[in-house]
Amino acid sequence: DDDKMVKSRWVQRVKYLDDEASIEVILTYDVVKEVTRIDGYEQFFTQYLLEQTAHMNSAYSVRLYELLVQWKTAKKTPVFNIEVFREQLGVEPTEYNRIYDFKKNVVDLAVNEINQKTDLKVSYEQKKKGRKIVGFEFAVLTNKKTNKKEVGIERDANTADMFTIDGLTDKQLKRIVLHKEFISTYGGLATGDNGRDWKLFTEFMVNEIKKNPSNFSKKKPIREYLNGKDDDYQYA
């Protein structure tokens, strides 16, 4: 409200729910306050496709993508002051203090991954004061390699992605794993109590599908198990 910069962490608390194979996250007050103001048009938040960053291996790549995609229309960023830039990328003060190490292990790594796996084609120039590098300026263009296979992310048409699992809900996944043909094909993966208790079996197999969907599409697309009649399913 007073136009002063506020620094805040994103997350106040994280709780791991082992029984549900999920994570409960509580955001900090400042983040919640801003998130609730997002309307997609008037606020200074950038919408970007989650699929653009889902396949990245480096957190630096994700953070750099989030930073650069805001300048996609302008096609060029302002000069990022190196100290602020390091903080934005999540580089600790004790990490990569030599400019060579910072470029090699953070900037170049992230730029290469963005160019290979996303809809952006980026490059940068170093900005100096005298002989000292004080910042980076990025060119941000559209990557013409929009097909995932072309940019190095091959995907089986029958394999679900890590968030939607072929667009199936948890309820549908639970029905699938109780299909008698599915049980006959993959039931051997469940051992111990997971193989004896139908509730545990269902939860175990749904989690396995979410973790490794490609393992369950070799015989036939997983969605086809929904096409059976009621007597094709085993219920507890």
Account of the protein in words:
The protein is an alpha+beta fold and 236 residues long. It folds into three domains: 1-45, no CATH class; 46-155, Winged helix-like DNA-binding domain superfamily/Winged helix DNA-binding domain (Arc Repressor Mutant, subunit A, Orthogonal Bundle), CATH 1.10.10; 170-232, no CATH class. It contains nine helices and five strands; from the N terminus they run E-E-H-H-H-E-H-H-E-E-H-H-H-H. The protein has helices at 29-35, 50-53, 59-68, 82-89, 99-117, 170-177, 180-186, 193-196, 198-211; strands spanning 11-17, 22-27, 80-81, 120-129, 132-142. The strands form two sheets. The protein has a three-stranded antiparallel β-sheet. A two-stranded antiparallel ribbon has the order 1-2. The termini are far apart.
